[in-house]
């Protein structure tokens, strides 16, 4: 926030004086004349201290509409002629004026007083303000602001939805099982939450609001740790029609548990009202829940079976409200196959699903599946095919800043960056990887570490040296240590050191699949070394160059230096007969184009950021995302904390 | 299936005989006939059906394509090489688990890498490299290609030119010759920038020509003008490099007299 203010240019700030109408002028002035009236700021300009200028204008609109409607309402069968209509309008406006007069008076006065109190700087005022007013002011002001709301009866929708919520809560109250012991009570609260989520999904499905289903999923993730078999089986019997094929199938995946607990739950489930006919959304949600549970319990084979069954079921359903749940299912489907090492099996399935998603215009599904497919290909190093798929598949840039899409976009950028790196397009790769690292939420530590690792290599390949702060980021020091030493070797330009570092950490590099890229770095090491030599010596024999760079022969050195000169890396000439290298005097660097290129890259970056900020303005960055990575445990714990915080401060978006 | 299989193997034997005789025309004829016969087998890619004779058929087809690849090198047809290699690839990747490892696999993979390098398709070179396992990278054929690429990237062109001697197989000679030509152009480009003056002897050595005459012909090809000491300056353009720079090729006995620019 501060930096926004700091960076704003002075001439883009406009200042205008505050205006308000004196309240007593309202009392004896004209508000309406004939069939004309004033409303909004024309009626009651006020100082901005209460924040009710615009709000009261809205109120005016509503009251005006009501008055006019009342005035013009025809008793049954009667006709109104022109003259009478005019009179009625006049009457209506007079009533409007009467209703708004005192309200505007009230608002203007209060706004002025508030402004006076808040901005006065005398000692007494300050003291009074801090000690007394701050305690009851906000409540009073809110009540003032909301008073009109209730009085003008514009909240019918507000009340209706409140009633609905109350109803569902009542229903749930009745179903609350009697806690027998502490274990059951905690699991019953989880069950309670799950049932809330189920009702949320139902309302979302009926109203076709994907937001609710998204919220349901978010709440589920918070409950993930608390899931137990008993909870799950009771939830399943609640949500799904008893005796249905789905119920039996899902129950078969869950391991059998203690007899005693089962009895308690059957007692409670008997007390529940019979479940409504199960929505497909609920069904898929149950699949998802069971799948998550199985994966968390590391029962990968059952998870595989469950996910394949769910995918088969999904293929038959075609509802847009299912998209959010479906994309989650695809993700877990691919995950459990990956955890058992059989990723190649799902490839054809994923491709078929992608085709289906495209046919149904299911954008979220398309994006998720594209990411999963790219991950699949990259897992097996099939960069060529990954690129072919990616270039042909449709992308949806417009939505990439929305909350739900941020995760998929980050993943996509990461995979794209990897592909570009292998294809030697380092500039594009660097942009993608750095963007992915920046957009990823703080909780996704493992993912950011991977992005950073690749970004470091790409920057080294481009010839830049990443700053030390990159390696010192919180939580990443240990993981990035090998890369730090590698950067050191490249920076110094010592081939021997480079070789030893590459050998020392070869296992880390091969697990990151960066081995071949490290080999490519050798060339950069030589260049840097050569550059250092050329700066330090005005004249040096090629034999010495070969020795310093630890090259094998003088002839090698000669051709390498020649190529470096041709590529513009160093500024020198060779003397073949004397076998030496002569450096040219480096003139004023500002006379070359280097400052220009440096500025250019910075300007491009700032402009890019500006464009992205403008695009993202309406959707504030979120703090919740789920990622999978090498360090799942730690990341998930951090995420849990974050989610708890997020939900605690989340606004009620039912209204 | 069996009579078809025997027919194909017989034709294949004749093909191999012609190959040994270096009768490349008959070879190409036989090859096209073989390819037509191979379409009758359903166990081959892209169908991959599981017939009882599948393994034999796959083995045979794999061998045929390998020979096709080597033949294309002999007749110096790079397009044919590419086509046959792409047809051969599924045999290594998808079916590899079912078939025993072919001796020629690494040889052919190395040849492919070299071909990509010669055609300057470095991105594809690296993509192919990613697909190779660690054991594959230890193989001399593949190692040779990888090291060549490294030397090429670093600029140690003398190593590239010297690689001709270290080729692991005689089929590699064709590509290394092509590479030599590319390298020569690169050396010339680098020398243009790096040297103020260069003795003719040294130039000849660097560009690996055996006589002065060849050097002058090459220079004419790339429009370098050789001056004698009398003329004041010489300019030259490198075709395709498009840069103009003053550069002198000096006759041997006069180099000590000339001063540097």
From TrEMBL, chain A:
<feature type="region of interest" description="Disordered">
    <location>
        <begin position="620"/>
        <end position="655"/>
    </location>
</feature>
<dbReference type="Pfam" id="PF08375">
    <property type="entry name" value="Rpn3_C"/>
</dbReference>
<dbReference type="InterPro" id="IPR036390">
    <property type="entry name" value="WH_DNA-bd_sf"/>
</dbReference>
<dbReference type="InterPro" id="IPR057985">
    <property type="entry name" value="TPR_PSMD3_N"/>
</dbReference>
<dbReference type="Pfam" id="PF01399">
    <property type="entry name" value="PCI"/>
</dbReference>
<dbReference type="GO" id="GO:0042176">
    <property type="term" value="P:regulation of protein catabolic process"/>
</dbReference>
<keyword id="KW-0647">Proteasome</keyword>
<dbReference type="GO" id="GO:0030234">
    <property type="term" value="F:enzyme regulator activity"/>
</dbReference>
<feature type="domain" description="PCI">
    <location>
        <begin position="410"/>
        <end position="588"/>
    </location>
</feature>
<dbReference type="InterPro" id="IPR002938">
    <property type="entry name" value="FAD-bd"/>
</dbReference>
<feature type="compositionally biased region" description="Basic and acidic residues">
    <location>
        <begin position="623"/>
        <end position="648"/>
    </location>
</feature>
<dbReference type="InterPro" id="IPR000717">
    <property type="entry name" value="PCI_dom"/>
</dbReference>
<comment type="subunit">
    <text>Component of the 19S regulatory particle (RP/PA700) lid subcomplex of the 26S proteasome. The 26S proteasome is composed of a core protease (CP), known as the 20S proteasome, capped at one or both ends by the 19S regulatory particle (RP/PA700). The RP/PA700 complex is composed of at least 17 different subunits in two subcomplexes, the base and the lid, which form the portions proximal and distal to the 20S proteolytic core, respectively. Interacts with UCH1 and UCH2.</text>
</comment>
<comment type="similarity">
    <text>Belongs to the proteasome subunit S3 family.</text>
</comment>
<dbReference type="InterPro" id="IPR050756">
    <property type="entry name" value="CSN3"/>
</dbReference>
<dbReference type="Pfam" id="PF25573">
    <property type="entry name" value="TPR_PSMD3_N"/>
</dbReference>
<comment type="function">
    <text>Acts as a regulatory subunit of the 26 proteasome which is involved in the ATP-dependent degradation of ubiquitinated proteins.</text>
</comment>
<dbReference type="GO" id="GO:0071949">
    <property type="term" value="F:FAD binding"/>
</dbReference>
<dbReference type="Pfam" id="PF01494">
    <property type="entry name" value="FAD_binding_3"/>
</dbReference>
<dbReference type="InterPro" id="IPR036188">
    <property type="entry name" value="FAD/NAD-bd_sf"/>
</dbReference>
<dbReference type="GO" id="GO:0006511">
    <property type="term" value="P:ubiquitin-dependent protein catabolic process"/>
</dbReference>
<dbReference type="InterPro" id="IPR013586">
    <property type="entry name" value="PSMD3_C"/>
</dbReference>
<protein>
    <submittedName>
        <fullName>26S proteasome non-ATPase regulatory subunit 3</fullName>
    </submittedName>
</protein>
<dbReference type="GO" id="GO:0008541">
    <property type="term" value="C:proteasome regulatory particle, lid subcomplex"/>
</dbReference>
């Amino acid at each position: 926030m501060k930096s926004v203010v700091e960076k704003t240019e002075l001439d883009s700030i406009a200042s205008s004086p505050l205006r308000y109408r004196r309240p007593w002028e309202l009392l004896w002035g004209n508000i309406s004349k004939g069939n004309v009236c004033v409303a909004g700021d024309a009626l009651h300009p006020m100082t901005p201290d209460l924040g009710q200028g615009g709000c009261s204008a809205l109120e005016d609109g509503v009251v005006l509409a009501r008055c006019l409607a009342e005035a013009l309402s025809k008793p049954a069968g009667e006709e109104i002629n022109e003259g009478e209509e005019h009179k009625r309008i006049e009457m209506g406006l007079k009533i409007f004026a009467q209703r708004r007069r005192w309200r505007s008076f009230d608002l203007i006065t209060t706004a002025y007083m508030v402004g006076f109190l808040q901005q006065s700087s005398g000692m007494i005022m300050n003291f009074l303000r801090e000690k007394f007013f701050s305690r009851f002011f906000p409540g009073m002001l809110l009540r003032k602001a909301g008073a009109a709301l209730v009085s003008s009866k514009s909240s019918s929708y507000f009340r209706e939805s409140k009633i609905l919520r109350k109803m569902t809560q009542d229903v749930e109250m009745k179903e609350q099982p009697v806690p027998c012991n502490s274990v059951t009570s905690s699991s019953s609260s989880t069950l309670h939450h799950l049932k809330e989520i189920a009702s949320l999904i139902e309302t979302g499905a009926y109203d076709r609001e994907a937001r609710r289903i998204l919220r349901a999923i978010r709440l589920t993730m918070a409950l993930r740790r608390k899931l137990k078999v008993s909870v799950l089986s009771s939830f399943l019997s609640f949500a799904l029609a008893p005796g249905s094929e789905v119920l039996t199938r899902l129950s078969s995946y869950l391991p059998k548990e203690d007899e005693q607990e089962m009895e308690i739950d059957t007692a409670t489930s008997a007390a529940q009202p019979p479940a409504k006919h199960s929505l497909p959304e609920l069904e898929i949600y149950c699949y998802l829940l069971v799948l998550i549970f199985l994966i968390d319990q590391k029962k990968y084979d059952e998870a595989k079976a469950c996910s394949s069954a769910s995918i088969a079921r999904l293929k038959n359903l075609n509802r847009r409200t299912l998209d959010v749940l479906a994309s989650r299912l695809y993700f877990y489907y691919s995950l459990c196959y990956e955890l058992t090492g059989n990723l190649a099996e799902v490839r054809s399935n994923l491709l078929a699903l992608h085709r289906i998603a495209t046919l149904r215009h299911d954008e979220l599904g398309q994006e998720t599946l594209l990411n999963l497919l790219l991950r699949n290909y990259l897992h097996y190093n099939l960069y060529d095919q990954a690129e072919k798929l990616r270039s042909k598949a449709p992308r949806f840039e417009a939505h990439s800043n929305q909350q739900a899409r941020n995760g998929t976009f980050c993943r996509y950028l990461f995979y794209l960056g990897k592909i570009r790196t292998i294809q030697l397009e380092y500039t594009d790769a660097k942009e993608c990887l750095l963007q992915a690292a920046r957009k990823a939420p703080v909780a996704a530590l493992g993912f950011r570490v991977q992005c950073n690792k690749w970004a470091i290599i790409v920057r080294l390949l481009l010839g830049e040296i990443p700053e030390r702060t990159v390696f010192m980021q919180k939580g990443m020091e240990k993981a990035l240590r090998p890369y730090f030493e590698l950067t050191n070797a490249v920076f110094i330009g010592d081939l021997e050191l480079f070789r030893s570092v590459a050998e020392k950490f070869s296992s880390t590099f091969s697990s990151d699949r960066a081995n071949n890229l490290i080999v490519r770095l050798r060339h950069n090491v030589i260049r840097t070394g050569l550059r250092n030599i050329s700066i330090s010596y005005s004249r040096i024999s090629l034999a010495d160059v070969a020795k310093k760079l630890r090259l094998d022969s003088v002839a090698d050195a000669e051709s390498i230096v020649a190529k470096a000169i041709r590529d513009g890396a160093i500024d020198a000439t060779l003397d073949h007969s004397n076998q030496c290298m002569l450096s040219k005097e480096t003139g004023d660097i500002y006379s070359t184009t280097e400052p220009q290129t440096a500025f250019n890259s910075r300007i491009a970056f700032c402009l890019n950021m500006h464009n992205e900020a403008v695009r993202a303005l309406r959707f504030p960055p979120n703090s919740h995302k789920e990622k999978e990575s090498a360090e799942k445990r730690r990341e998930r714990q951090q995420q849990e904390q974050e989610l708890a915080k997020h939900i605690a401060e989340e606004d009620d978006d039912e209204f | 299936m069996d009579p078809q299989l025997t027919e194909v193997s017989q034709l294949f034997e004749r093909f191999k005989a012609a190959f040994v005789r270096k009768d490349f025309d008959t070879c190409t004829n036989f090859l096209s006939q073989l390819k037509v016969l191979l379409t009758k087998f359903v166990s081959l890619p892209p169908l991959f059906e599981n017939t009882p004779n599948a393994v034999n058929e796959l083995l045979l087809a794999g061998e045929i394509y390998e020979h096709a690849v080597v033949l294309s090198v002999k007749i110096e047809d790079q397009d044919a090489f590419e086509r046959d290699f792409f047809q051969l690839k599924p045999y290594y990747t998808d079916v590899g688990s079912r078939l025993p490892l072919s001796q020629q696999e690494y040889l052919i993979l190395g040849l492919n890498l070299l071909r990509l390098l010669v055609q300057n398709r470095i991105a594809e070179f690296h993509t192919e490299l990613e697909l190779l396992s660690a054991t594959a990278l230890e193989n001399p054929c593949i190692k040779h290609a990888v090291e060549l690429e490294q030397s090429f990237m670093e600029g140690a062109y003398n190593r590239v030119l010297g690689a001709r001697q270290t080729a692991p197989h005689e089929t590699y000679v064709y590509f290394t010759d092509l590479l030599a030509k590319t390298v020569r152009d690169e050396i010339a480009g680098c020398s243009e920038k790096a040297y103020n003056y260069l003795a003719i002897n040294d130039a000849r050595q660097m560009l690996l020509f055996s006589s002065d005459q060849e050097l002058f012909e090459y220079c004419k090809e790339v429009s370098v003008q050789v001056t004698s000491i009398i003329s004041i300056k010489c300019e030259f353009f490198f075709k395709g490099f498009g840069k103009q720079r003053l550069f002198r090729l000096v006759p041997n006995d006069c180099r000590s007299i000339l001063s540097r620019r």
